[in-house]
């Protein structure tokens, strides 16, 4: 169990640019989640995959956001035409099947928009 | 819909003193409850979880929490604080049968004074 891995750890970009983050979940976990966390707040749910299927998306996930998990393993989160308000920590978590199974989190990608 | 409220955004204790971090939940169905800890620039680490077995749950690092249905509470305690306990603590809730719908509290920052 190597844990959930996220890359990059930090991303600084100019407003209007596109960014992509990657998450590698724990290998035997079939569920994968993306969250956004702003300063002084708890994580807010963005989207959820079971294997390669994206089963739920939050209203927080605007049209500029897209997430994929093409082979049911790693996932990417892309933000197009970034805005100042997108500055946040983006957290990925994974869990195994079973409704009492906890989510295991990566260290996150901190996005700063100049 | 379910939610959690963490009472006190900041808690300060002396090293060796009792730690008590408060969490109250609201859920229309029986919940699962979790406590996570977050150190600076890191993701969330699971401390403990309540999934309808024993109401007193023991976790890592000497922490424990008690599920009290009558008080809709799941407070986190530790008998003796260590300097290394200084971090942000998050309470989270999911409805039974739907662990992808996890809602977090706003967090409590614990400071430990020498």
List keywords for this structure.
heterodimer, A: 114 residues, mainly beta, seven-stranded mixed beta sheet, four-stranded antiparallel beta sheet, globular, B: 114 residues, six-stranded mixed beta sheet, five-stranded antiparallel beta sheet, 56% strand
Explained architecture:
Chain A has 114 residues and is an all-beta fold. Chain A has no helices and eleven strands. Chain B is mainly β and 114 residues long. Helix content of chain B is 0%, strand content 56%. Chain B is built from no helices and eleven strands. In chain B, the strands form two sheets. In chain B, strands 2, 4, 5, 9, 10 and 11 form a six-stranded mixed β-sheet that branches. The mean pLDDT of chain B is 92.
Structural class of chain B: mainly beta
Q: Termini of chain B, distance in Å?
A: 41 Å
The 3D shape of chain A can be described as globular
Tell me the structural class of chain A.
mainly beta
Low-confidence stretches of chain A at least 5 residues in length (pLDDT < 50)? none
What is the helical fraction of chain A, as a range of percent? Answer: under 10%
Strand content of chain A: over 45%
User: Count the strands of chain B?
Assistant: 11
Rounded to the nearest angstrom, the radius of gyration of chain A is 13 Å
- Uncertain regions spanning at least 5 consecutive residues of chain B: none
Largest sheet data of chain B: 6 strands, mixed
Number of E strands of chain A: 11
CA(first)-CA(last) distance of chain A: 36 Å
Query: N-to-C SSE series of chain B?
Result: EEEEEEEEEEE
What's the overall geometry of chain B? Answer: globular
Kindly state the percentage of residues in helix of chain B. Answer: under 10%
Strand content of chain B: over 45%
Pair with the most extensive interface? A-B, 29 and 28 residues
Main sheet attributes: strand count, strand direction, barrel closure of chain A: 7 strands, mixed
> How large is the count of helical segments of chain B?
0
What is the N-to-C order of secondary-structure elements of chain A (H for helix, E for strand)?
A: EEEEEEEEEEE
